[in-house]
Design brief:
Length: about 260
C-alpha cells in the first residue's frame, strides 16, 4: 500500500428512498494515520463548502455545499496500474464542489475521462440528481432511487462488507425516524469475512483481510473518520463526523453541522 491511497474506502447511501429524506449517506474514510487532515468544517477559502480536508494535497474525500451540491470519492483498488506520480484524486471532489457546473457536465468534461488519475469511483450531484463515474469503467451513470454501496470496486460490487452494509442500511430505513447512532453503528462493524469470501484485488492476503472490514484498525492504517449525512425533502442538512486516532481507534471526536440548502 502506498501513501497515495488517500481517499474514502466505503460509502453507503440511500437516494430518494426514504419518505422523509432525499439523501442519506454513511461513509468511512480509511487512511494512513500519519497523513495529516482536518475534520469537516466550512472552508475558509470557500465558505460554501462543508468537507474535511487532506492537508498533504489539499483535496477532500466527501463534501456538500450550502447550495446542495454533493460529491464523494473512493479509490478503485488496482495496485498493478497505480502511478505514484498521478495527481491526488481528492482534487476531483474539490473541483466539483468549487464549480458552478451541473454534475453531468462536470463528468463529461473531465480531461481524458480522468485518465491521469489512479483508479477512482466518483459520486457527484445535487439533492435532485446524482451521478456515478469510474475512470476504470468510463460510463456516466445516473443514480436511480434506491440503496447503494461503494467500496474499492465498482458501484454495488458484492464484496462482503458492501452487501452487509447495504442490508444494514435498508433495515435502518424501515422506520419514519432515522437515528444517526444507528448509522454510525453500521460503520463501526469490525467483523472479519471468511477468506473464501474475499475479493482478489492485487494486494496480499494480509491486506485483503484487513481491508475487508467495514471499520479498519491496524497499527499504521485504519478508519480515520466516519460520516453521516442526512438531507430531508425540505433541504435541511444534518452532517456528523467522528474522527479517530491511532491511539483511540474506537473513540471518535464528533463534529456536527446543520443548515438549510440555499436556492
Amino acid at each position: 500500500m502506498r501513501n497515495k491511497e488517500e481517499v474514502m474506502c466505503l460509502i453507503f447511501f440511500a437516494y430518494n428512498y426514504h419518505p422523509r429524506y432525499q439523501l442519506i449517506v454513511a461513509a468511512n474514510r480509511d487512511e494512513f494515520y500519519k497523513r495529516p487532515s482536518l475534520p469537516a468544517a466550512f472552508w475558509r477559502d470557500n465558505p460554501t463548502i462543508l468537507a474535511g480536508r487532506d492537508l498533504e494535497q489539499g483535496g477532500t474525500w466527501m463534501g456538500l455545499t450550502t447550495t446542495g451540491c454533493f460529491a464523494a470519492l473512493t479509490n478503485y483498488r488496482d495496485p498493478v496500474h497505480n502511478n505514484p506520480q498521478a495527481p491526488s484524486r481528492g482534487y476531483l471532489v474539490h473541483k466539483y464542489l468549487n464549480s458552478d457546473v451541473s454534475p453531468e457536465y462536470y463528468l463529461k468534461n473531465l480531461p481524458n475521462g480522468g485518465a491521469e488519475y489512479n483508479g477512482f469511483n466518483l459520486l457527484v450531484g445535487t439533492t435532485q440528481a446524482i451521478y456515478y463515474y469510474s475512470n476504470r469503467e468510463k460510463v456516466i451513470r445516473k443514480i436511480a432511487n434506491g440503496i447503494y454501496g461503494l467500496s474499492n470496486g465498482f458501484l454495488n460490487e458484492p464484496w462482503p462488507k458492501v452487501s452487509k452494509g447495504k442490508k444494514a442500511l435498508a433495515d435502518c430505513l424501515q422506520g419514519q425516524e432515522i437515528k444517526k447512532d444507528q448509522l454510525f453503528k453500521i460503520m463501526a462493524d469490525q467483523e472479519q469475512p471468511e477468506d473464501c469470501e474475499l475479493p482478489q484485488t492485487g494486494v496480499s492476503l494480509e491486506w485483503e483481510r484487513l481491508l475487508s472490514r467495514i471499520f479498519i484498525v491496524s497499527p499504521c492504517y485504519g478508519t480515520r473518520s466516519s460520516t453521516v449525512l442526512m438531507v430531508d425533502r425540505k433541504g435541511h442538512v444534518q452532517f456528523w463526523e467522528r474522527s479517530f486516532t491511532m491511539e483511540q481507534p474506537g473513540r471518535g471526536k464528533e463534529v456536527f453541522h446543520e443548515f438549510n440548502i440555499k436556492g
